[in-house]
Structures are given as structure tokens and as C-alpha cells.
């Protein structure tokens, strides 16, 4: 096993006291960055990048990638406690994580989230360790048509999963698509629906939307229910972690499915955010407790977190082997590689073995250290919920506002956030589901580009989506999922004819 | 977290400077030094060529301690860079703001009608010219630009697919320029989000050719997946060190030599806001001279096979004027000008 020998060498690199220290500093910084909404992993890494220019490339990447792992862990914390996704990929974690916190099970939700993050990451690192060349070849098969098929599959896995009317889901999704199309149209190079307003040039930013929809929306909802912040009766249990762990093994199938979704989306590269949504959608569709999703099912926390972390981790593979970033954070790291004098690409594994294997070894260790750090803090995080709502609500408002401002240093975003908060309130009152709306904002843009790129390539021939086995398979799977409610209804009718 | 906190503080300061500038006339001194952090705006997303160069400069300035105040890099990519340029336009007489440019300085206002031009800025220096290379997949039979152009001529209209970054920007402008030589046959131009992704689409054979910058495609070239046909410059590159086993950048023929008479380079320049004093411009000129004297910069130039042309003052201004006209002509010919 050539890889194992290289990996041992990598561990040797990481275990220098200096590198080990950088790793811990990176994780801690990352968790803080992950907790603060708006200040994402990409921003955090970009801000700290200049600090690393005087380090050796290996030390630099260890620190920066550890910030990334920390941010991946940290994103879940505020999602669960306050319904504010710290990072885009933890939006899906709020769907069940926050209801769990409201039921006084915050510690269980946090433990579940951190543990699944860890498992997702480790599976992805093992894949990178042993299958890197193979996986890189797979990524090359992905052209625009394949990308669209994957995005279509994500949307399809969400349609019809809402508790209410499928038409409301569709309406909510379409509104999201409309907002996603504001800004520059990447295919024609024209501005769309900006009405001459400079602030709209960038379009509706996903992060502003989620901070408003979830953070502010939640505060408004709590205010209405008489300032009672449920979850404040959470008991401090020091053995919470062990208790929660006992429940996890029976969800092994969810873990496996989510790991596959995550690794796949990270490599191709689709990104951690779509991965978490798709994994949540699939878990809901295939779980025995599917109809209880959204009310505080631990499975609904496990699925998105496992996938997000698996995707976030495996996103580094296309960056290293192909020079294409699998996530915004990977894009910044890619810039770092060039500045440190390294050239990402197929030859990196051969020419810079120390660097690559040091990085891979730090992925194992960094995630382990990260897990230990965040798990020891679970009782502490859960205790935050015991603070009275009248104190915590203004704090949350401030964090949300700072987060929205930080995304682009624009006051306009703060007002937009408030606007989205009101939209969320209206959605809840009229029982329109929020998840499809959010999903459309985050993926609508990408799906549109991929679709139009495919149409350009095929000169408008829709058969491009069935032009080879790979894309055809994904598309057909998507179609099946999309029409599953109709199909299952039809099957039921055939099997049990209605008594006349 | 200190880095983040200071970033916020810096941004707050930068926002306040407009008000400050209104009250105090900038002291016209022989020498000028920044009195607070300098904001370096990137009118493009993270990970692209302009972003890499700006962050690299920031790193060099920090590493060699070339400036007493910190340099803060901010991406303002919205509306094909309009966001960044409009931000500069909105803060005249602010010497603590500089912006790095790519061709979108010319193409974005022409294609989208966004209300700005380089005249809303003060030119500081041209740092380099970025090259473009015509790439095909190494498994295809084309050895020269003429081979490829003839194949396009002989094929069906729109049969050949050109991948590129963005729409109605440099990559598509070059594509249109190439179409003058293909006997009426058009390429199908497919815009992607980033240069790295474009190179990989070519490796995966989803497109037939690209005009990637050297830096975006060099890794795939060295791995033997891509083949460069020609470089869109009037002279061959000056870098003679071997990049692959048997080729250096200087071994790539110019497109004219190779049978496709098209040349195009992209400005990598720095501008500051309108109405700053000559002393303030001079500070940045000297700063960039120091940056360029570092070995790090020379390495960076060689890796990206940049055309190292340095210009300042009136010479640079004339170049920008001429280049704007060139872009106007090219975009008019291609039908890319905004109608409103």
C-alpha cells in the first residue's frame, strides 16, 4: 500500500509542534467563523491568507484548511440553537435541529450534528487517500448537462416533500427562482431585473436571505408566542454526548447514503450546500419517519450534516488534482496555493508529495481534534438556551445584522435581511414552506446556467440530458423522484381497486 | 478574530472618508503616505486571475513590509465587476482606495450600460499584460492554429464549441475575432463561471477549444491533457524555461505565425479614485515598483507567463485610451454593445 506509506510520512509532517499548534488555532478560529453568520469559511480564509505567506506552504495549508473544518463544524451550532444558519450548508440542519432544541434536546441535536460531520469528513478523507486518481477522472465526466441533471435531482428530491400542498411548494420554489435570476445573467452578459439599482447588481445574496428568513423570521415568531423561548427548560446533562451516541448507530443507512451524496457532490464539484439539501430531501423520502421530518427528527440533522461535511472535505480533491475549486472556500485556498508557489493540477501529488500528504494527514487529525473540541463544548452551547429570551433576542438580532452587513459591507443587505424576515413570517402564517424557496435561491442560478450551457452545446436539443449513461441515469432518477407522489398514488390505485 | 475585527474597523473608516474628504482639502505635499489602511478592490470573484494577483500583491506588501499601513483586499464582483467600479466612482478624492482591473473595465460598461468608465478613475500603473492562448485537447489531431481554423471552416456552422469565462468579455471577444478567419462559420461560445472550470471542461472534452490564460491551463498542459496551439500576442513569450518535458512558453508560436492573425492581451493595471493629488498617485507608483523588484513577483510573472510591460503616467493613460477604443471597435463589430 503505497498510499499508507505516504500517509505515514504526512502524519510525520503534521506532528511537528508548530504545525500541531497551527492546527488547533485554525480549528478554534474556524468554529468562531462558522458560528458568526455572514462571515463564512471563504471570507475567514481570505482574511487570514496574507498571514500565511511567510510560512511554509504545508504549515499554511494546514492552518487554513483547519479553519475550513472548524467552520464546517461551527455552522451547525447557531442553526440548532437559534435557527440561524451560520453557514449556507447548515440551512438544512435548521429544519430539524432547531425544533429539537425547542423540545429541550439541543444537546442531542448538537452531538448528532458534530458526530455526523466527523463521520462525513472521515469517509471523504479515506476516499481522497485511496481513490484520488480514480475520482478525479470521474469528475472530468461532468459537463453542463451532467451538472444540470444533478441540480434537477436536488430540486426533484424536494418537490412533494412538504407537508402541505404540493402547489404551495411549487409556488414557493418559483418565487425563489425569480429572486435568483436578479443580477447579471451569466450567459448573455446582460443585467436582469436590477431596475437601475446599484445594490441589486449582485442579485439577492443567499446568505442575506437565509439570515433574514431563518434568524429574523424565528425571532418574529417567538415574539408573537409571548416572548417564550421554548427550550429554556433544557436540563444540563453532562453525559448528554454518550446518551446521544447510543441512538446514532441505528441510522447507519442514512449515514451511508449521506456520505455517498456528499462525496459525489464535493468531487463533481456541486458544493456542500446542495449536498446538504439533497441529502435531507432523500433522507425524508426514504426514512420510515419521513412524515415527522421538520418536527425534530435526529435523522433530519444527521443527513444534511454528514453530507455537508463529506462534500466540504472532498471538495478539496478537485482543487488539488484539477485546479477547480469545489466550494468558495476551496477557491480561496486555490489562490493560496499559487501564491505559495505550488501549482494545483494532476502533477501536484507527484511533485509536492510532502505538501499533499501533509494536508491529507491534517484532514484526519484536524477533524478529530475539531470533534473533540466541539463535543466538550456541547453542554456549554446547550446552556446558552437557558438565558431568558428578552436578553438573547436582541443579541441574536445584532449578530444577524452584523452577519448580513459583513457579507458585502453594505447597509442595504441589513435592510434586505429585515425584509426577508418579514417574508418568512408571512410564509409561516400562510403555511407556505420555506425550504423550497431557499433551495431555489441558492441553486436556481447555477441550475439555470447549466441548463442554458447544455442547450448551447446541443443547439437546443433536449436529448442531451439522455445522451450518455451517466447523465441519463441521473435525469431518470430525478424524474422518478419528481413524479414519485403521482407514481405511488397510481400504484396504490392499481393494487387496491377502489370499492365501488 | 482580530483580523476580522480590524477588517470591519477598516471598512468603517473607508466609508467615513468621503465625509472627511469633504471637509479637509488633501495636503499637497511632495511626499504622501497613507494614513490608514488601504482598500484594494477586486472587481471580480475569488479565485480568478485578478483576485490571485491582488491577493499576491497584498501578500508581498505584507511580507516585505512595503507599506506602513495594512492593505485590505475586498471582492466586489457584482454585475461583471460594475459593483467594484461604481464603488470607486462613488468615492472620489479617496487616496486610500485602489482597484485592480481586468478587461471588464472596458467591456462591462459597453455590454451592460453600467454607468462608469475608466475616466471616473485615476490611472496609477500597468502592472503587466495577461496573455491568452488557444488550447485544444491533447487527444485531438490539431497541431497548429491553421489546422484548427481549417477544421472549423470545413465543419458545420456552430459545430465547434469554444468554452470561455463570462459573456461578452475578453474570451468571447477573442472568439469573435477568430470567426473572421473561419469563412463564415461560427463557434458555439459557451460561457462558464471561472477559468479553471473552463480548462477542465476542455480536458473532459465537453468543449473543443478554449482561450484560457496561461495560469488557468498550465497545470493541465503539464499533465499532458491540453495542447497550446498559439499565443494571442505579436511576439512570442520571453520565458524560456521548460514548462513541460519538451516545451517552454517561448516555444508556443504567435497566432500570426501559426496561421490565425489575431492578437489580444488583457490589462492588469491599478487605478485609484478620481481627483487624487499627483503625490498620492506617485506613492502607489513607487509602491508597485518595489513590489515588482521582489523575487516573488518575478516568480509569479513567470508562472503565469505574463507579458511584463510596466507603464505609468501619461504613457499609461494613452494606452488605456487606445485600448478602450480597441474594445469599443471589437465589441461593436461583434454586436455586444448595450442598446440602451
Poorly predicted tracts of residues of chain A: none
Task: Tally the beta strands of chain A.
Answer: 2
What's the helix count of chain B? Answer: 11
CATH superfamily of the largest domain in chain B: Bordetella uptake gene, domain 1
Count up the domains of chain A.
1
Roughly what is the average pLDDT of chain A, rounded to an integer?
84
Q: What is the overall shape of chain A?
A: globular
Classification by helices and strands of chain A: mainly alpha
Residue ranges of chain B: pLDDT <50 for 5 or more in a row?
1-29
Q: How many DSSP E strands of chain B? A: 11
> What is the N-to-C order of secondary-structure elements of chain B (H for helix, E for strand)?
HEHEHEHEEHEHEHEHEEHHEH
Report the end-to-end length of chain A measured between terminal Cα atoms. 68 Å
The residue fraction in helices of chain A comes out at over 70%
Q: Give the neighbour order of strands across the main sheet of chain A.
A: 1-2
Mean pLDDT of chain B: 87
Which helices and strands appear, and what pairs or packs with what?
The complex is a heterodimer of chains A (500) and B (340).
Chain A: H1 2-14, H2 17-35, H3 41-48, H4 57-82, H5 91-102, H6 106-140, H7 144-156, H8 166-180, E1 183-184, E2 191-192, H9 206-224, H10 240-247, H11 252-267, H12 272-286, H13 299-314, H14 316-322, H15 328-339, H16 348-351, H17 353-376, H18 378-384, H19 389-408, H20 411-429, H21 435-458, H22 469-482, H23 484-495
Antiparallel strand pairs in A: 1-2
Chain B: H1 2-23, E1 38-42, H2 49-63, E2 71-75, H3 82-89, E3 97-101, H4 104-112, E4 121-130, E5 133-137, H5 145-154, E6 161-165, H6 170-179, E7 188-192, H7 195-203, E8 209-210, H8 214-222, E9 226-231, E10 266-273, H9 278-293, H10 295-303, E11 311-312, H11 313-334
Parallel strand pairs in B: 1-2, 1-3, 6-7, 6-8
Antiparallel strand pairs in B: 3-10, 4-10, 4-11, 5-8, 5-9
